[in-house]
Amino acid sequence: MKFNKIFPVRRRLHAPSVALSLITACVMTLASGQETNNGKQERSALQAIAPKVINIWPAVAPGSEQWKQKETSLGSGPTQRIVNVTTPTLTAYLPDPAKATGTAVIIAPGGGFLFLGTDTHEIAEWLAARGTASFVLKYRTAPLEGENEAQLNQAGGARFGAQLRDHALIAEDGKYGIADGIQAIRVLREHAAKWGVSPDRIVFMGFSAGGSIAEFASVNPDVNARPNYAAPIYGAPFPDVPPIPKGVPPFFMEMAQDDNLAGPQIVAMYEALKAAGYKPEFHIYEHGGHGWNMRKQGTTSDHWLKEFYWWLEAQGLTKPSK
């Protein structure tokens, strides 16, 4: 199956216009849709289960020993984002033991490896209410200089533009997040029994840059630190699609045809998996753009999370493990 009519694979992005679009899309990623009554009830039911924050490295994360930047939250509510993350963590949303299936989902937010959205916690709550243990990954982001929100936003925008002009910078900025994603899998598998999950039912879900982490973790040469399932949502590996080894986990992939930021690379990743003999499930929506997450747009992409859950169901991951 060829997708060249949808996207010319690996075409270069035009930096000036796309830089502005990428900044806008990343902010829009953080804008959640209005909660339904059911969603409010689920959130209320989960208030009794306080999320637990776990440091994934025993000391300072390797490679950032000299970092001095201060982690800062920008904005508020559904558009809140975090920059200058130096201490990577997992925030655990554990389900009611009576509903627990033993399946765990690591959720990595997007943000161009420069900031992290916070609305992925809503997804974690949604999954936990259905018996799936969920762990939101706060991974390290590339350092930004600035004393206030305006300066940090300006620094982030400038770095986005630089990334789009030189994709090698995306790999440079993303190496810390990829290392943290792989470490998160190790930690979760090591402590699986304590958190009531099965070490062979670990799903790695990621959005945009977080999807790239999910993909690189899934082709990690260390097979013991790969997830058992991967779900990159409008996420793409940059600057190039990595070699596809043996033993890659089942993939669930989603994108919109009007995603002009990561679309070509997502298609390239799908075709690489197919060429290597795998059969990833790939949902391509007519509209949705880039960075929809939980934001409602009146498109079929609004229902992506249900599609993901149905995929979990087809994999046997929504029933208790034996």
Structural summary, described in words:
- There is one protein chain.
- The chain is of the alpha/beta class.
- 34% of the residues lie in helices and 16% in strands.
- The chain is built from 8 helices and 11 strands.
- The chain has a 6-stranded mixed beta sheet with strand order 1-4-7-5-8-9, with helices on both faces. Strands 2-3-6 form a 3-stranded antiparallel beta sheet, covered by helices on one side. Strands 10-11 form a two-stranded parallel ribbon.
- Helix 1 packs across helix 4, helix 2 packs across helix 3 and helix 5 crosses helix 6.
- The longest helix has 23 residues.
- The N terminus is likely disordered.
Distance between the termini: 37 Å
Record field, number of beta strands: 11
Which structural category do the helix and sheet elements fall into? alpha/beta
Q: What's the main sheet like?
A: 6 strands, mixed
Strand content: 15-25%
Radius of gyration: 18 Å
Q: Residue-averaged pLDDT, rounded?
A: 86
- Compute the number of helices: 8
Which spans have pLDDT < 50 for at least 5 consecutive residues? Answer: 1-48
- Give the neighbour order of strands across the main sheet: 1-4-7-5-8-9
List the helices and strands and how they pair.
Blueprint lengths: L14 H15 L7 H10 L5 E4 L16 E3 L6 E3 L5 E5 L10 E5 L6 E3 L2 H9 L4 E6 L10 H17 L2 H23 L11 E6 L1 H10 L10 E5 L18 E5 L6 H13 L5 E5 L18 H11 L8
Parallel strand pairs: 5-7, 5-8, 8-9, 10-11
Antiparallel strand pairs: 1-4, 2-3, 3-6, 4-7
